[in-house]
Amino acid sequence: MTCLKKITEYLFYLFIFLLPWQTKLILRPAPTNFTEISLYATHFLLLLILLLFFIYRLGDKKSEINIPTLWYFLAGWELFIFISIWFAPDSLLAAYHYYSFLIGVALFFLLYAGRGSDGYEDSFFAKGKIIGSFLAGVFIQAILGIAQFLNQSSFACKYLGLARHDPSALGTSVVEVTSGRWLRAYGGLDHPNILGGVLAVALLIAAYLLAKKKMLHKRREVMESILLFIFYFISLFALFFTFSRAAWLALAVGLLILLVYFIRRGDKWITGRFIALLFFSALLLGIVVFPYQDLVMARLSDNQPLEQKSITERETYVGQALSIIKNQPWLGAGSGNYTTVLARSAGVKDPKGSTVWNYQPVHDVFLLIWAESGIFALLFFLGFLFWQIKKDRREPFAPAILGLLLILLLFDHWLFSLPFGLLFLFLVLGLI
User: Fold this and answer.
1) Per-domain residue ranges of the chain
2) Which residues pair with 24 in a beta bridge?
């Protein structure tokens, strides 16, 4: 059984490391990821880990059945997502979105059940190795994102799930200024905003780990600190090159909450280290920002055509969401069917056709859940989040991560609209 435990454990660390890669088998092609049906390589790996975990637990006589309250909220959320399938115009797409949700729940279960009854003291998985695997995986994405921005191009590789992005092509995420169209950093993910959100979470965890290291007595501790510093500043630059305003704001909010936490804790050494880290972050970021200050001003102002278009579209998306909610407030329009419903209401006969690209999910996860799965699904989701906030057994950086996550939930949709987003959402909630 010890051998089985080790195999399961290290397969899980491998899964965490590989999570950002979008290698997939497309079963039903579509012009957008919102209506595409695919099987991801990481899903198969996670299901294998789950199977091995259950086999090990069956042979472990010490295992106990304990159902915390938050699982009832999660079950209620899942139930109404399932019910919404039967009211969806594209039931196959709704079933696929439900499957993606269950994959996320499986990851959350492994993180929660693998933590053990005494936190990480009697855990199946080691907290440090989970976080280390996560940061290592994100670091590769950061390097790739920086390279994409500096080269203003990206290469395609189907085996790694990488798509080619051309700044001159319509539909590519760019910053448009008088000097031309500048490609934003994607990494290996579907959109710069997704890379930005992932980097923001990783940076906040790295900042916490760097601040809390007091004295370095061993060579291993010194090496860990050096690697953390390298990761932190490389990822900070990569976050800048995503030009994701939501991710910038989310990280700022998370760091502010973390600063308040350190001040209230009363440890002047840790607080001083954290403030020093923020100072050098601002200094080095300022050096990088200076050559691209026109791009920053374009993203922060509302007088550029693309930025005006972005603001107008977001307002339109909210109106569309409220319209769907008004028509189907109780059980929603169908899980994963938001853009399909919009397209059909506009008279588009083939929701999988090219014109469906004009329709995007509302950039607010709370409205999106309500529109797709109904008010009861939203209430259970809010209850689930509330229980995550109030639960006793949580990490010290949990309030900062939750504050960061709240910004991403309020200003974007990918944490619920895409398979990777659901996995990442449950990963973050499972870690805290």
Assistant:
1) 1-124+304-432, 126-301
2) 40
